[in-house]
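Regression test case RT-17, inverse folding.

Input:
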């Protein structure tokens, strides 16, 4: 893995946003029971695709939240993140568990590699920071083996509890932007872009799709409201069963897409 330092993308807002999350990420997400449930679901679903590979690329690795999982499979990991603070924490985590990892501060655009990866992972909303999805997917395709696996866990436009939360809070413009413009604007200038199946299928074939927490609240809502914690305990098993058959448009807090590059027909 090498980094092209000549590329200087406009990334200050994204970097600052994730830098601010670095110190609270573990408490806000890794220790949150519902967020942990989602991550464990993703690990269960992608484990079969990782058993036979030696090395993977983790794009947007954060503080190393998936590193213990990678270590359990004895994987070698190349990892990048835009946030220097996230990378610092990821390096501490990898050293602590003795994970074989090469971790760098970089954007996907800056990343260069002479090798092709059998698996590339963009976990929990990393893809949602990309305003222009197609160039990112094309770059990922160049880094992937011809029949390699791309795993993207993306926030979709529709999640029933997120939409209800916006409606109850009278955030109707935000709600409409999410549903119809497929983006959300924040006061600090950061923008989230929401994607679904149709955004990926021009370049990739969907091998498997798992709607996560389609019938459950967001991790933040789970922590804020006691009745939602009780509701989640009741609904967590039905949600798991329903997620296996839900259509893409029904969404969820996240959707896990397991994909392969489309094979180009030669005529």
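Golden output:
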């Amino acid at each position: 893995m090498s980094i092209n330092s000549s590329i200087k993308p406009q990334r200050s807002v994204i970097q600052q946003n994730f830098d601010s999350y670095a110190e609270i990420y573990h408490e806000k997400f890794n220790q949150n029971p519902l967020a942990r449930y989602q991550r464990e679901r993703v690990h269960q679903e992608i484990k079969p695709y990782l058993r036979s590979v030696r090395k993977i690329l983790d794009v947007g690795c954060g503080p190393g939240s998936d590193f213990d999982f990678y270590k359990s499979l004895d994987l070698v990991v190349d990892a990048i993140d835009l946030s220097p603070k996230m990378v610092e924490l990821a390096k501490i985590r990898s050293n602590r568990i003795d994970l074989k990892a090469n971790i760098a501060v970089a954007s996907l655009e800056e990343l260069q590699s002479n090798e092709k990866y059998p698996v590339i992972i963009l976990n929990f909303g990393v893809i949602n920071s990309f305003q222009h999805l197609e160039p990112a997917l094309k770059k990922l395709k160049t880094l992937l083996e011809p029949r390699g696996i791309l795993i993207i866990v993306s926030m979709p436009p529709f999640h029933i509890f997120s939409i209800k939360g916006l409606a109850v809070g009278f955030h109707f413009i935000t709600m409409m932007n999410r549903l119809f413009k497929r983006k959300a604007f924040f006061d600090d200038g950061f923008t989230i872009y929401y994607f679904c199946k149709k955004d990926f299928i021009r370049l990739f074939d969907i091998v498997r799709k798992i709607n996560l927490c389609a019938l459950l609240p967001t991790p933040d809502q789970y922590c804020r409201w006691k009745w939602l914690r009780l509701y989640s305990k009741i609904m967590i098993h039905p949600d798991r069963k329903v997620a296996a058959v839900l259509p893409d448009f029904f969404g969820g807090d996240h959707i896990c897409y397991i994909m392969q590059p489309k094979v180009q027909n030669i005529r």
